[in-house]
Specification:
This protein has about 160 residues and is α+β, with helices and mostly antiparallel strands. It is about 35% helix and about 15% strand.
């Protein structure tokens, strides 16, 4: 079950450590990578397909991305699963992140497909979050926003799910 908006904001603020932009201070890379690989395998089995898996992410606040092809779902677009380096957070999006607004996603992302992804996330202890609140301007304490020019402030998506 995804975190609701209030739980999401509480978790984002809790995970926003000063100076820890790519990974939290207690990040266990080998364990995180192993869990990510298990997720990729489970999604491929669950959707009976070969997923596109981005395993070579560097200089980012996310560990990797798994794309379930549209042909393996009842959706009209691919399903993208982006795994953050922070707190086991995972954003599940229809299409590429940012492709659909909240209403479009609610209408076009079949609940059955979403549930199948969320079941696999839950089985591995991940916390799914909606991407939509993450597109708001970053207002945290980490100093992360200093990496960006003043005329292009970062979003919470940038903070936890993107390249730096």
């Amino acid at each position: 079950m995804p975190l609701d908006e209030q739980q999401t904001w509480a978790m984002l603020r809790e995970l926003d450590e000063p100076g820890q932009w790519e990974v939290p201070h207690d990040f266990d890379g080998p364990a995180a990578r192993a869990r990510f690989e298990r997720l990729a395998e489970r999604l491929e089995r669950r959707f009976d397909c070969s997923c596109e898996v981005d395993r070579h992410v560097q200089d980012a606040s996310h560990l990797g991305r798994i794309v379930i092809p549209a042909s393996a779902t009842s959706a009209q677009d691919q399903v993208t699963v982006t795994v953050s380096n922070f707190g086991g957070l995972v954003a599940v999006t229809l299409g590429n992140p940012g492709s659909y607004d909240e209403d479009e996603e609610r209408e076009l992302f079949p609940a059955r497909d979403r549930r199948r992804v969320e079941d696999e996330l839950e089985a591995l202890g991940y916390l799914p979050v909606s991407e939509h609140p993450l597109w708001t301007k970053y207002t945290g304490i980490s100093g992360f926003d200093s990496l960006y020019p003043p005329d292009r402030p970062p979003s919470w998506w940038d903070r936890f799910f993107d390249y730096l």
